[in-house]
Design brief:
Layout (H helix, E strand, L loop, with lengths): L5 E4 L2 E4 H12 L6 H14 L4 E5 L9 E5 H11 L1
Antiparallel strand pairs: 1-2, 3-4
Helix pairs in contact: 1-2
Length: about 80
């Protein structure tokens, strides 16, 4: 997975490892709102070391299912989408 060197989040620039440390610290916050837990968990998964990422379908047509995507393929698809 090709990772950016820097990430800008809420107007602050981070190196990837610094950003992950920030995310891990935020996830330890007991009073964190659910949408932030979901967001930070996604960032943790996306910028983590695994080549794949798991997402859950909405379940609109049946029980929700976990789907595993290759990160490189997601990036390629996004770039081709324009």
């Amino acid at each position: 997975m090709i990772k950016p060197k820097n990430i800008i989040f809420n107007g602050k620039q981070f190196l990837v490892d610094e950003f992950l440390e920030f995310i891990y610290g935020q996830l330890k916050n007991k009073g964190l709102e659910k949408y932030l837990i979901d967001l930070y968990s996604f960032y943790s998964d996306w910028f983590g070391h695994n080549e794949t990422i798991s997402v859950q379908s909405s379940g609109s047509t049946g029980p929700p299912k976990t789907i595993v995507f290759n990160k490189r393929q997601l990036v390629k698809s996004a770039r081709q989408t324009g």
